[in-house]
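Run log // design_07
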């Protein structure tokens, strides 16, 4: 996040040259590696391209870099004529390994967010600062000082938190469990990672929704799994599609987000839930229910979870505080049979020896003292207000370009663009105008869909953000 200091006398180009020389000397750019193009570095540092040209000229004069037409600017392999010590070819390392990088769209979006340039963020599936219970957490830490020991905690999770979750989940979601059947994780992502790594094998066939948040996670491909899709309509997936897929590919596991699905916002219809559970039981296929949004039901009446209806133990249930309270606490949970919990606990202990006890203690106090229930009530009001403002803006500003179904919960609104569009060019144009969204192709959809999150932007940013997005649509829609 370094930027030139315009308040000092040293010329900007010299500051940039010194900055790049430090990065080269620290090994960020090994001998022979290519530096960012003049235009790209200029955009990143918010300076004129000519300033970067001068900086690179300074580095060339020092013998640190060399340029060739058509090849860009590279770090010299033999600095000042002295053969360097052998340096690892880091390019081959970063392109190796079995854990794949994020999709290019996701990396581009996160790169823009890291710049902190005041961009209006319709992309992040996270709450805005005013929806976080910051004051409550501060009061908890001040009024009830943390007095627990700071050694490694139980790798299955802080025991008082697991006991509190048993009561909370039964009261609010009618999920019956025991503290021994709960594994505390750092969030839904870690739960999914443990499942894909420990309960499945390379080559296994799994089914996900289409479109699906799971499609955007490289962890499935990294685990060597074969992904097959279950189309989602306004009533969720059709359970009979599972029978067809299983007959063709011997599906080993289902990954579903039944309530306020990400990204479409759909809810699986009641009769489909019953049939879904029947089929899973008949075929002996586990269902992984990823449930970040049920408690955000805007009418205050959450639909039932699959776990609460499960009579045969087919459902592995994943939840977290990230979408309803505080993503920064990094607290999630997984409910599963004891044998599964033991297997995943052993794996996570090999990874990190368990979570820090401090955020688990905070989460336990937050839930046990009734603050989480209050937070959910306030959150629903805040999300409803933002959702309505977003829909008003869509109707007033771009109704001729976009159609959608109003979400009844969750943090996102799924839009279909009624014109032909290149989603990469659309995102690029939107970024230039100071607004971010997630293209539908990230979730396996066609290019004519986008996901707009109404939870992250401030209320007063929603209409300006839609205005900028509309301007981008006008340029790139045919």
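design_07 sequence
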């Amino acid at each position: 996040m370094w930027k030139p200091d315009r308040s000092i006398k040293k010329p900007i180009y010299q500051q940039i040259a010194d900055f790049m020389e430090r990065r080269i000397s620290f090994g960020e750019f090994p001998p022979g590696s290519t530096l960012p193009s003049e235009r790209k570095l200029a955009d990143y540092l918010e300076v004129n391209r000519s300033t970067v040209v001068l900086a690179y000229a300074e580095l060339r004069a020092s013998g640190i870099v060399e340029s060739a037409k058509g090849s860009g600017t590279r770090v010299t392999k033999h600095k000042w004529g002295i053969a360097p010590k052998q340096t690892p070819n880091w390019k081959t390392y970063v392109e190796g390994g079995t854990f794949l990088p994020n999709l290019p769209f996701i990396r581009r979006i996160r790169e823009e967010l890291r710049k902190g340039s005041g961009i209006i963020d319709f992309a992040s599936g996270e709450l805005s600062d005013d929806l976080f219970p910051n004051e409550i957490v501060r009061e908890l830490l001040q009024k009830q000082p943390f007095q627990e020991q700071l050694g490694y905690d139980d790798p299955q999770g802080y025991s008082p938190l697991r006991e509190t979750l048993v009561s909370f989940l039964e009261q609010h979601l009618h999920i019956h469990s025991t503290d021994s059947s709960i594994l505390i994780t750092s969030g839904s992502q870690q739960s999914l990672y443990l499942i894909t790594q420990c309960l499945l094998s390379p080559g296994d066939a799994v089914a996900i929704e289409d479109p699906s948040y799971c499609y955007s996670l490289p962890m499935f491909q990294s685990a060597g799994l074969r992904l097959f899709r279950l189309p989602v309509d306004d009533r969720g997936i059709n359970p009979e599609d599972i029978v067809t897929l299983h007959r063709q590919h011997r599906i080993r596991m289902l990954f579903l987000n039944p309530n306020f699905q990400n990204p479409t916002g759909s809810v699986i219809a009641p009769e489909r839930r019953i049939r879904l559970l029947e089929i899973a039981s008949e075929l002996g296929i586990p269902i992984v229910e990823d449930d970040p949004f049920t408690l955000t039901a805007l009418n205050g009446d959450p639909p039932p979870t699959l776990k609460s209806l499960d009579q045969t133990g087919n459902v592995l249930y994943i939840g977290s505080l990230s979408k309803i309270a505080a993503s920064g606490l990094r607290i999630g949970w997984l409910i599963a049979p004891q044998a599964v919990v033991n297997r995943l606990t052993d794996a996570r202990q090999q990874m990190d020896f368990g979570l820090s006890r401090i955020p688990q203690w905070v989460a336990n106090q937050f839930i046990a003292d009734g603050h989480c229930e209050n937070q959910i009530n306030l959150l629903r009001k805040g999300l409803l207000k933002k959702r309505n403002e977003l829909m008003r803006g869509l109707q007033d500003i771009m109704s001729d370009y976009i159609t959608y179904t109003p979400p009844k919960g969750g943090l996102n609104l799924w839009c279909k663009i009624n014109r032909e569009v290149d989603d990469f060019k659309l995102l690029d144009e939107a970024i230039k105008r100071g607004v971010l969204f997630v293209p539908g192709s990230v979730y396996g959809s066609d290019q004519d869909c986008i996901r707009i999150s109404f939870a992250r932007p401030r209320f007063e940013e929603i209409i300006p953000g839609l205005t900028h997005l509309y301007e981008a649509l006008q340029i790139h829609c045919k």
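The first strand starts at residue 65 and ends at 68.
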